[in-house]
Amino acid sequence: MVRLITHNLLACHAKGCTSNNFPLQLKDVQVELRDAEYNADFLRGFISRIEWPALVDAARQLGDTSLPNEPPEMMDDDFLQKLHHVLLEIHIEEGAMICPNCAHVYPISNGIPNMLLAEHEIG
Q1: How distant is the alpha carbon of residue 49 from its chain centre?
Q2: What domains sit in the chain, N to C, each tagged with a CATH number?
């Protein structure tokens, strides 16, 4: 499933595309909200792995403006609930992710991203 926790880890891997290949831009997406079990300890432990500007930008592309531009020093429950929602409850069902460098399109269908490349695109 494409959630923003997954999107935040994906970069273009097409042949020769080694710079400015993250984050993938979202296009023509259909979003579904699904409840997920809240786990504050998981969020506190995972936040250091997040590319924060990419997460905030992706959330805003999907219409969610709840996250601050910078992660707060004090991670209170209100902030963690917002982070939980953005990372784990927003599901991208259909659409595409596009490389900002080479414009390669990675389609998303039924919530599954197709990150496979054609043989001539493999580096």
Answers
A1: 13
A2: 2-113 (2.20.25.10)
